[in-house]
């Protein structure tokens, strides 16, 4: 494989700095030469850097920090991996012969193709087993240092609904009637979380006979999807966590949790996902995952990272989750509160079963879902797009 020279957008402000770090280390292990360009650095500084190092391509997460015109003028390919909904970040104006996009959820591909993006492919998330194991060793070496994470059930995730600031930054204007329409869409998504946004919008256009969603710009559509995702994800996270009363539950995330968690639950505040979360996943008997409702055909980072520690998860049902694992995970997925509570109880009581399942999950991600494997897949795809 060619030893690529890559300019990588890094630093605070990227969608997930730890994912960028995982990708960088994996690419270096594959023999690539990486030059970092912090996204907080002025874009005017990038041209001399490009001309000096002459990268084979530029790597970004969620197209963050990218100025398309620069790469068109310099004739340098830019690869963007969307670990979030791509419509939050790009629209029709980003069509370019020098842009290549990958998504972590296949359900986004039809809409991107409709918008005229042809160089798009599916690249699921992965895990950095070495980082997860390093976190476990660091926290568990000292006497008693692991005790802080011992719990029946852990959950790591946000509750906050941070779409207002996003909309204001982009001066989003919604079609009327805004509130009634959004409330209707949110209720529909809650009643059927596995329906895609495209299916949701097509249903509404058919029902109301006004083609309102066909007329949306990509930016407007992305803003509506963000609102629906954050409102419904918060609803399900609160709902499923509260279903676990009677167990020792510890929640890590934003301050909003403090106002709604039952009194017997513990709130651990924010956790360093890069350095500490491996130890947390390892010490909890069960790690709860409540997937953001925007994800339809992929798995999120949390599920793969939990498996990388040899621990067990309980995740809300998605039709494609089983495809990511060699072992049977039917006992690790739930469709409602009763099933969640029942399966959590069985796993908490059965140390032997948890250990056996954890070993199988670890082997699955080791065989198929490391960042080394994912970056190798990406480089194979990039070869077909070289300019």
Name the CATH architecture of the largest domain: 3-Layer(aba) Sandwich
Write down how many β-strands occur, each being a DSSP E stretch of 2 or more residues: 12
Q: How many domain regions?
A: 3
Give me the CATH superfamily of the largest domain. Answer: Glycogen Phosphorylase B
Envelope shape: globular
Helix content percent band: 40-55%
* CATH hierarchy class name of the largest domain: Alpha Beta
User: What gap, in angstroms, lies between the N and C termini?
Assistant: 17 Å
Report the biggest beta sheet as strand number plus sense, adding barrel if it closes: 6 strands, parallel
Quaternary assembly? single chain
* SSE class: alpha/beta
Which sequence of strands runs across the widest sheet? 2-1-3-4-5-6
